[in-house]
Amino acid sequence: MTIRVLIVDDSALVRQLLTELLSADPQIQVVGTAPDPLVAREKIKELNPDVLTLDVEMPRMDGLTFLENLMRLRPMPVIMVSSLTERGAEVTLQALELGAVDFVTKPKLDVANGLQMYADDLRDKIKAAATVKPRGPALLRSGGPVPEAPKRKSGPRMFRTTDKLIAIGASTGGTEAIKVVLEGMPPDAPAIVITQHIPALFSRPFAERMNRSCAMSVCEARDGQLILPGHAYIAPGGFHLLVRRDGAKYVCQITDTDPVNRHKPSVDVLFKSVSEHAGPNAVGLILTGMGDDGARGLKLMRDGGAHTLCQDEASSVVWGMPGSAHRIGAVEQVLPLSEMADAALRLVSS
To answer: Where does the record place a coiled coil (predicted)?
Structure first.
């Protein structure tokens, strides 16, 4: 089946380049372009596209306002095309919260060559988006209402040892899925290490958003940082996050080695390090995401005695990574997103 795409971007050059890049794939047909959301609104009615690419910063109506209206009135798969800047990161994260499926980044300079570098990634994301059933605002993807984040509080800790560890990996749809899991954690939960496929400049704003909405303390991981209960550590974009043991403690290790499974950070890299240094004291969670990154690493964790969970297909935006892990026998339990936090806490304290 040919995927019908509408491109919405105020730059005529970007519209032309995206049209050429996408049309090079026989499975994708660019049925139209629009310079702003008001024109896009009419073209959606006229052309009935399967997937929309949307610039985050648009004239006449900003991309977020348009996306919010679209998801309320005519939900459809949307890929955001954002600038590789901190401002672009903030807006893109808001767009994912409003229901966008995924995003690609465009460079500030030398747009033509920059977009060419992302051609394969863009086409893959278009194809994945075409399989997604539109669900409106991303908070609905948990399979139920999301509880209000518990308030930070002092008092005795349930978990006093640094020996227990929760490792999470995610990709497409993962920013909101991770939020659901973290919001289900108490402030004294075991330490959590997270790899989300995300570019540089996006991981710190993502960590800050998580820190504002969760009872745990959430940060972008730093090399040599001590891993402590009540804290969650997110891999920095463009680097791998590993867990190492330093005596009786766990520490973060940040490396600038080659991409693994085309990703940097890679979930497999994190999970493999957790299997080696935490063994049966860890619980692994693989959430929504395109591809198979993390599947083999989760299998190593399970073979080493760790408990392993994956998000079910119904609550996943894309059941690529969880499905791959399930198929190779890496998964102990398949659960809806809304049950992942409670299950992880039960297993890590057992």
So the answer is: none
Domain ranges of the chain: 3-137, 165-348
- At 154 the pLDDT is 41
Catalytic residue among 83, 293, 312, 326: 293
165-348 placed in CATH 3.40.50.1240:
no
Q: What are the b/e assignments for 15-27, b being 16+ CB within 10 Å?
A: bebbeebbeebee
**Which sign does the torsion angle of CA 292, 297, 300, 305 carry?**
negative
Q: Name the token pair of 308.
A: 């392993």
| Per-residue model confidence as pLDDT tens digits over 256-301 | 999 999 999 999 999 999 999 999 999 999 999 999 999 999 999 9
Q: Do domains 3-137 and 165-348 have the same CATH topology?
A: yes
Q: How far apart are CA 239 and CA 78, in angstroms?
A: 27
Q: Of 61-70, 73-82, 302-311, which has the strongest mean pLDDT?
A: 302-311
Q: From edge to edge, which strands make up the β-sheet containing 240-246?
A: 226-227, 249-255, 240-246
The pTM of the full predicted model, rounded to 2 decimals, is 0.91
326 is catalytic: no
Query: DSSP letter string over 214-278?
Result: -SSEEEE--TTPEE-TTEEEEPPTTSEEEEEEETTEEEEEEE----BTTBSS-HHHHHHHHHHHT
Active site residue 293: yes
Per the model's pLDDT, the better-predicted residue between 350 and 190 turns out to be 190
Strands 28-34 and 78-83: unpaired
**DSSP state, 159?**
-
Exactly one of 171, 266, 316, 338 is catalytic; which is it?
171
Catalytic residue among 55, 142, 197, 338: 197
**The CATH number of the domain covering residues in 3-137:** 3.40.50.2300
Residue 66 scores a pLDDT above 90: yes
Q: How remote is the C-alpha of 275 from its chain's centroid? A: 22
